[in-house]
Design goal:
mainly alpha; 74% helix; 9 helices; flat
C-alpha cells in the first residue's frame, strides 16, 4: 500500500512541476499564435456576415475571405463559436484556465508514466526518468502528431470521433511497439514492435473534406513547431522530475519495490 501511496505522491508532484513549466512556455509560444489565429477567424466571420453589403468591385478580397471562412466552418464544426457560447476572457482568466487544464493533464500523464515505469521496475534516477519522458513524448505527441498535427482556431478538421479513435490507437500501438523494442531482446519481437509503430501511419489519420482556411500556412507551421517543442520540454521535465522525486522520497526498500 505504501508503494501505491508513494506513486501517487510522486506523480502529483512531478505533474505539477511539469505543468508549471509548460504553462510558462505557452505564454510566450503557443498562446500568442492562438490569439493571432483568432484574429483571422474573427476577420473571416466579419467578412462573411458583411459580404452581402460590400460592392463587388471594391471588396473582392473580402469575398475570398468569406468563401474561405464558410468552407472552413462547414468542414470543421468543432471550431465554431456559438453566439451564446462561453469562453474565458483574455488576460488573467485565460491564463488561469490554461494553467488549471495543464495541471490536470500533467498529473494525469505523470500517473501513466510513473505507473508504467513501476511495472518495469521503477525509476532509479532522473536519467531513467529522462528516457521514460522521451518515450512519453514519442507516444503521446510525436507519433499522433505526424498524422494529426495541432490545429489552430478556424482550421478544418475531420470527424472528432474518428480523430479520437485514430489518436488513441496510434498512441497505444506506439507504446506497445516501444515496449517490445526496449524490453524484449528478440529480433522477431523487435520487428513486430516496428510494425506496430508504422501501421497506424499506413492506415492514415482521418482528414477533412475541405482544407480551405483563413489561417496562413506560415502561422500554422509556427504553431506546430511551438506545440511540439513545448511538449518535448514538458515530457523531459516530467520524466526527470518523476525519476528524481522517486529516488528522493522512496528510499531503501521502498525504492527497490515496484508493481513488478
Amino acid at each position: 500500500m505504501s508503494v501505491f501511496r508513494n506513486v501517487v505522491f510522486v506523480a502529483a508532484l512531478a505533474g505539477l512541476v511539469a505543468a508549471v513549466v509548460m504553462t510558462a512556455l505557452q505564454m510566450f509560444s503557443t498562446v500568442p499564435l492562438i490569439l493571432q489565429a483568432e484574429d483571422y477567424e474573427q476577420a473571416a466571420d466579419v467578412s462573411g456576415h458583411d459580404h452581402a453589403a460590400f460592392p463587388a468591385d471594391q471588396h473582392a478580397g473580402a469575398a475570398d475571405m468569406s468563401t474561405t471562412a464558410m468552407a472552413s466552418e462547414a468542414a470543421a464544426p468543432a471550431h465554431e463559436h456559438g453566439e451564446g457560447a462561453w469562453e474565458p476572457a483574455d488576460g488573467f482568466e485565460r491564463y488561469s484556465f490554461t494553467a488549471l487544464a495543464n495541471i490536470v493533464t500533467g498529473i494525469g500523464f505523470a500517473l501513466i508514466l510513473v505507473v508504467a515505469s513501476e511495472f518495469a521496475g521503477g525509476l532509479a534516477s532522473w536519467r531513467q526518468g529522462l528516457l521514460w519522458g522521451l518515450a512519453g513524448f514519442a507516444v503521446f505527441t510525436l507519433a499522433p502528431g505526424l498524422g494529426l498535427p495541432p490545429e489552430l482556431p478556424a482550421m478544418p478538421a475531420a470527424d472528432l470521433a474518428a480523430r479520437q479513435v485514430w489518436w488513441w490507437g496510434t498512441a497505444a500501438a506506439t507504446a506497445a511497439g516501444l515496449t517490445l523494442i526496449a524490453f524484449r531482446r528478440a529480433l522477431p519481437l523487435a520487428a513486430l514492435g516496428v510494425a506496430l509503430i508504422v501501421v497506424p501511419h499506413i492506415i492514415g489519420a482521418p482528414q477533412p473534406a475541405d482544407f480551405e482556411t483563413p489561417i496562413p500556412e506560415g502561422l500554422h507551421h509556427q504553431f506546430v513547431v511551438a506545440v511540439t517543442v513545448t511538449n518535448l520540454v514538458f515530457w523531459v521535465v516530467l520524466g526527470m522530475a518523476a525519476g528524481a522525486l522517486r529516488s528522493r522520497f522512496m528510499s531503501g526498500e521502498d525504492l527497490r519495490s515496484s508493481f513488478a
